[in-house]
């Protein structure tokens, strides 16, 4: 028996190796699938510009964890990048919960059906008499500039209508809580103020 095993191993070692590798890959993907945060436990932010410091993800996660959020991700693209329109449409409007962009970019975007209507916010971005976003005030931009590179133009923060975290009929209101936090007159503490 010992000799037949050695003979089989000599000829079939590649199959044993492939079976072991397949088992490891299946376990890896299954573990990731079942342990990855659900969309209701994730806040994805699209920023139309340059992200300076990604530690904002950790800061936002610490602020949002009481709401059941387990992951905060930032996607970004410079407005003058050739791929901006495609990334803004595919990732920002259809894959993220919160969009932060220049007012000029939002002016060119069809708001109805693209962004959620907001209630209870001040300093709102209006289109056809409906509030779709919040202008980031100077104090909020100053606080957020430790993480994001803002220009001299007005910036608007909005909630994508496709977000499962957008409140009013969505599964959670985590995006509304997040938007209120970043728009709250610069009360976003930087990592050095903690």
Q: How would you characterize this protein structure?
A:
This protein is an alpha/beta fold. The chain has two domains: 1-36; 39-187, Periplasmic binding protein-like II (D-Maltodextrin-Binding Protein, domain 2). The chain has helices spanning 2-35, 56-64, 84-95, 103-107, 138-144, 174-182, and strands at 42-47, 50-51, 71-76, 98-102, 124-127, 130-135, 148-149, 155-159. The strands form two sheets. A six-stranded mixed sheet has the order 3-1-4-8-6-5, with helices on both faces. A two-stranded antiparallel sheet has the order 2-7. A hairpin with a 2-residue loop joins strand 5 and strand 6 (130-135). The termini are far apart.
Give the strand line-up of the largest sheet. Answer: 3-1-4-8-6-5
Number of domains: 2
What does the average pLDDT come to? 88
CATH names the topology of the largest domain as D-Maltodextrin-Binding Protein, domain 2
The proportion of residues in beta strands is 15-25%
CATH homologous superfamily assignment of the largest domain = Periplasmic binding protein-like II
Helix proportion: 25-40%
Rg (CA only): 23 Å
**Structural class given helices, strands, pairing?**
alpha/beta
């Amino acid at each position: 028996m010992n000799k037949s095993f050695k003979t089989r191993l000599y000829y079939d070692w590649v199959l044993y190796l492939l079976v072991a590798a397949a088992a490891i890959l299946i376990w890896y993907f299954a573990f990731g699938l079942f342990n990855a945060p659900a969309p209701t436990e994730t806040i994805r932010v699209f920023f139309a510009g340059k992200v300076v410091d990604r530690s904002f993800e950790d800061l936002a996660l610490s602020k949002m964890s009481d709401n059941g959020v387990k992951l905060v991700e930032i996607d970004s693209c410079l407005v003058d990048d050739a791929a901006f329109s495609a990334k803004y449409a595919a990732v920002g409007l259809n894959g993220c919960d919160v969009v932060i962009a220049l007012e000029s970019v939002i002016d060119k975007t069809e708001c109805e059906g693209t962004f959620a209507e907001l209630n209870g916010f001040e300093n709102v971005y209006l289109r056809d008499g409906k509030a779709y976003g919040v202008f980031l005030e100077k104090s909020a931009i100053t606080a957020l500039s430790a993480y994001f590179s803002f220009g001299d133009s007005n910036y608007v923060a909005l909630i994508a209508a496709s977000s499962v975290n957008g409140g009013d009929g969505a599964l959670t209101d985590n995006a509304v809580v997040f938007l209120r936090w970043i728009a709250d007159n610069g009360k976003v503490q930087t990592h050095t103020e903690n």
